[in-house]
Specification:
The protein is α/β, with parallel strands linked by helices and 239 residues long. It has eight helices and eleven strands.
Length: 239
């Protein structure tokens, strides 16, 4: 079964991003921000409780230390520093999971470091070394350094497809610095084609193959609630 996952718990202090309450019923997995690009201890605790209430699998969503840029700016950290940053963030979420008697299900890197690790083996291995500490799968892009590093380090891997993002000609994700409304019909058609044909059309009009076991959406677009419902309906369509 193909699951639907969402990056969530990205509010911070008095600032609110995403309607997690409305989105949560439609997804299978919640990737919860761990404090470096968004979130705070209270938000993490509340998001864990919300996901637990709906019986959703919970993953850690660590990032580069870039709260001002929402984790979408590339930064250079040495491999040991990056591994330590990820262990720190995953460990913080793990504490809230332990308090709620819920297990950590997976790790899904956020934003710029996700793209960096897709193309750079050193970055990907540094991330996988942190994931290995917690003995859970890594969510990442098949056919990239995510998958190769997971194999090298000995971490389980789950391929991911992005329904609400465009793909570049080389299979890279086009990640906006700020989110605008998602074109729901276009995203639904992109996902439907990916599920049925295992292909996606890129920004130059070419078609590439995709392999995945989970589909990602984001909670910060202004119409994220509608996106979640539409993607759920696509995944629930008869084969």
């Amino acid at each position: 079964m193909i699951t639907l996952n969402c990056d969530m718990g990205e509010s911070f202090g008095p600032w609110r991003f995403g309607d997690d309450e409305a989105i949560m019923p439609h997804v299978d997995c919640a990737n919860i921000a761990c404090g470096f690009h968004a979130s705070d201890p209270t938000t993490m605790m509340r998001t864990v409780e919300l996901a637990g209430r709906y019986g959703k699998a919970i993953g850690a969503h660590p990032s580069l230390p870039d709260r001002e840029g929402f984790g979408r700016r590339e930064m250079h950290l040495g491999p040991n520093e990056l591994t330590a940053a990820f262990i720190y963030q995953i460990g913080a979420l793990r504490g809230f999971l332990d308090a709620a008697a819920v297990s950590l299900h997976h790790v899904k890197p956020h934003g710029a470091v996700y793209g960096m690790a897709a193309r750079d083996a050193v970055t990907a291995i540094a991330i996988c070394e942190a994931v290995k500490v917690f003995n859970v799968p890594l969510f990442g892009m098949s056919g990239t350094q995510h998958e190769a590093a997971a194999r090298t380090v000995g971490v389980a891997f789950v391929g991911e497809f992005f329904a609400d993002l465009a793909y570049g000609p080389s299979g890279e994700l086009i990640i906006p610095r700020t989110q605008s409304a998602v074109h729901i019909e276009r995203a639904a058609n992109r996902l439907r084609t990916a599920v049925r044909e295992r292909t996606v059309e890129t920004t130059d009009g070419s078609t590439i193959a995709v392999r995945f076991g989970t589909v990602c959406i984001h909670s910060d677009p202004p119409n994220a609630n509608e996106v979640a419902l539409a993607m759920r309906r696509v995944l629930d369509e008869p084969a």
